[in-house]
Amino acid sequence: MKSPSLPSNEAKRLSALRESGLLEPKNHPTYTRITRLARRVFGVPVAMINLVDEHVVVVKSTDGGDPTNLPRNLSFCGHTVLSDAPLVIPDTLDDTRFADNPLVTDDDPIRFYAGYPLRLPGGATVGSLCIIDHYPRPFSPSDIEALADLAALVEAEFAAASASITDPLTGLYNRRGFHHLATYAIRAARRRAEPLTLAWLDLDRFKQINARYGRTDGDNALKAMAGLLSSTFREADVLSRYGGDEFAILFANSDEKGAWIAMQFLTEQAANWNEHAEYPWALSFSWGVREFDHDRDDLKSWLATADQMMYSMKQQRGTGC
User: Which pTM value belongs to this model?
Assistant: First the structure.
């Protein structure tokens, strides 16, 4: 078995994938319709839209297949993203890259695979639309054209998702919007020699809320946190649901001390909210703040440092996930 190699632009490719917001675990009816259509058009048992992350292949949508994420080193799609051309394997047993792959030799084998690479608007190849059969089969040029047409529909949805800068659940900026605004804020702060401070916030026991009370209550917790941020901070502050249960707050023209005081006030507001809330769970969070160092920091290192400070608080308090 040959594990897929890494694309020459792997670092930029992964960065583009993560900033796109596509890795967020949410249902998307259009993707479901496309995989359902692909399965019917080609008469195959499995059709999938997959995203190739650093170590795993993330199943964005599947019709007939296992929705569980797959190790990248075993995947066919990891090979598909290495080229702009489709990857077609009429019989996997005849291909030395895959003949002894566990996915080919198990009881429900992949004997046919056709994958079309999927690109973001900026050109980064982040995944594939693929179809799978348990028996060998031919794949004609007209079949490739039909697969390309369906892949174009997926890419159109990628473009629409990438163009959005707000999180539909909370109304705050999403990861993409935050990166755009933070980049602008850093440049402006440098020109004006003004302080700029980032607060990184993570909900405590969010997974437990989802597990015990259900996804609706998990969404309510996220919306409650977003509402608390909006009512507590200034209009000039940039508020973002960065991903999952992580939030970022950008305090313009504020040093670390000022941001620390603001976050303490947010903690008090959360305690007051909990006293009057009618939910079976409490809203709590861990956080860290970091002032931007104009001489040493860039956006990536700044985010990482604030995240480390938040995680340190979470460990000290023993609040877990």
Answer: 0.65
The structure tokens listed for 192 are: 């004006």
The string of pLDDT tens digits covering residues 34-50 is 999 999 999 999 999 99
Pick the CATH number of 175-317 from 3.20.20.70, 3.30.980.10, 3.30.470.20, 3.30.70.270: 3.30.70.270
Instruction: Write a three-state SS string for the chain.
Output: CCCCCCCCCHHHHHHHHHHHCCCCCCCCHHHHHHHHHHHHHHCCCEEEEEEECCCEEEEEEEECCCCCCEEHHHCCHHHHCCCCCCEEECCHHHCCCCCCCHHHHCCCCCCEEEEEEEECCCCCEEEEEEEEECCCCCCCHHHHHHHHHHHHHHHHHHHHHHHCCECCCCCCECHHHHHHHHHHHHHHHHHHCCCEEEEEEEECCHHHHHHHHCHHHHHHHHHHHHHHHHHHCCCCCEEEEEECCEEEEEEECCCHHHHHHHHHHHHHHHHHHHHHCCCCCCCCEEEEEEECCCCCCCHHHHHHHHHHHHHHHHHHHCCCC
Could you read off the pLDDT of 82-138 as tens digits, one per residue? 999 999 999 999 999 999 999 999 989 999 999 999 999 989 999 999 999 999 999
Q: Where are the domains of the chain?
A: 10-163, 175-317
Q: Which of 234, 232, 221 is nearest to 170 (CA)?
A: 221
**Cβ-based burial of 110 (10 A; exposed 0-12, middle 13-18, buried ≥19):** buried
Quick one: CATH architecture of 10-163?
2-Layer Sandwich (3.30)
pLDDT band at residue 293 using 50, 70 and 90 as cut-offs: very high
Lowest mean pLDDT among 54-58, 61-65, 191-195: 191-195
Six-digit token string for 265: 């006030």
Amino acid at 166: T
